[in-house]
Every structure is written in C-alpha cells, then in structure tokens.
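Notes from the 1:1 (GR / supervisor)

We went over the backlog. Supervisor wanted to see one worked example end to end before approving the batch request, so GR pasted a single chain during the call. The sequence is below; no edits were made to it. Supervisor asked that the structure be written out right there so they could see what the output format looks like.
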Amino acid sequence: MARYIREEVLNQPDDFVNYMMNDFLTKHGFKYENFKGQMVYRAGGGLIELPKFITWSYFNGVIHIEAWVRVLWLPGVYGKENDMSGFYGAVVKDMYKKDVEQLISLLHQPLNQSAVQPGMSQQPGMPPQPGMPPQPGMPQNGPILVQGVDTSRYANFALGFGIAGLVLSWSYLGIVFNIIAIIYAVKGKTSAKKGRATAGMVCAIIGLAIVVLCFLGGFIIGLLG
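Structure output shown during the call:
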C-alpha cells in the first residue's frame, strides 16, 4: 500500500472538522463509493486526470488522512496505488498533494469560539461520522466562522494555460498547455472565479481542435502528395 499519509493533532471540535472535510471533498469533486471492497472518496478517473482517492478519520482530537492516486490503464483497469511521488502524472500528483497540505493547514486555523455552539449539528451534506457517506438535510443550530477551501487559483491557472495553449496550438508545447488548462479548469469550476475556469476550458478545447485539424490536414496533404 503506497499512500501519502498525514496524521495531525488538531484538538478541534468534531463539527468543525466534519464541515471542513465536507467542504474539501465537495469542492474537489470527490464521491463516496466502494472501490475494490473499500469505501473511499474518489475524484477523477478520465484519461486526462489521474483518479484520486482519500480516506480520513478523526478520533480524540487527531485526524488521520490517507491520499493516493492510481493510473487508469483502461476503463475499469487501474494500476497500483501511488503516494503522489515519481515523474508520471507529476503535475496532477503535485496539485493533489498541495491540496491535502492546504486542507491540513486550514484544519489548524483558530476558531471564533463564540460562533461554535455546544452540540451544534452538522452542515447539510456532511458525513455524520468520519468515513461514512454524506447524509443530506441535516439541520444546523449555529454558524462557524472559518476560512473554507478556496480553488480560485485553479481558475486563474486554467485561463492562463488555456490562452497560452491556444496561442501555441501549432506546437507540442501547446498540446501540453491545453491539457493542463483542462485539468485546472475542472478544479476551478467550483470556485468564485468559475467564469475564468470556463474561459480557460473553452480556449483549451479550441486549441486542441486546431491541433487535430492541423494533423488531419497534414496527413491528407501527405497522402495526396
């Protein structure tokens, strides 16, 4: 088992930890499902972005997080667990590792204790216990003033790489930039700057379409010549 494992002493209220984990999982597109006999949170799974997995538990003030990726060779055929090290998929793995580290940092943030009500219920859609599937419709008795997970930077990256990929769509570098732009756009679409993520996605798709047309045009010219 090759996983990126973090264990941190938080000593934070259970409701706060549940809320932050649910916020992270929702914004990064994780779904709770059975994968090879284990209940895990999973995101991704296409040819562009490596499938990402995470499990977590919180007990006696200590949070335990395990995160990893797998290579998708064919639909339903996965490689071994990867702890986000190594060259293959380095961009995606580095992004995911930084996301988990940002989450750990946010979990350590000081709370406005006056906003934390004793016995406060969980936020809607939050897992009632660590590692359990989300239960929608849970009531809440009081707000928690906290800094949530922010994916706006991915929207900015998506737009930047999308424009660069469109300009360089005639080159191999443009292909790389366009693929990176799509990866960032998917992650940035849940942020307050989702318009930039969408614009980056559009630029990347147009850029890749130009690459395909150029390839087909060259192939046809080669046949005719």
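Supervisor's comment: The first helix runs from residue 14 to 27.
Batch request approved.
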